[in-house]
Amino acid sequence: MIRNLAQGIRAFTSNVFLVDGETTALVDAGANFDVVPKVREVTDHLDAVYLTHTHPDHIGNVDAIREAFDVQTWGYDAGNLAVDNRIEDGERIQIGDDVYEAIHTPGHKDDHLCFFSRGSGVCFAGDLVFANGGFGRTDLPEGDREVLIESIDRLREATGDEVTEIHVGHGPSVVTRPQDDLELAARAARVNR
Question: What are the angstrom distances between the C-alpha of 74 and each of 79, 109, 144?
Answer without folding.
Answer: 11, 16, 24
